[in-house]
Amino acid sequence: MKNALTLLAALWLTCLSATLAENPPASSAITADAEGNITVALAGLPKISMKKVEGGTFVMGAAQEQDGVADDDELPPHNVRLSSFAIGRYEVTQELWVAVMGSNPADPGEDPQTPVYNVSWKDAHTFIQKLNQHPAIRQNGHVFRLPTEAEWEYAARGGQQSKRYRYAGSNNINEVAWYDKNSGNDVHPVGKKQPNELGLFDMTGNVFEWCSDWYASDYYSTSSAANPSSAAVFNPLGPQSGSSRIVRGGCWAFPPEKCRTTYRATSDPAADGLNILGLRLAMDLDE
Question: Would you state the pLDDT for residue 225?
Answer without folding.
Answer: 62
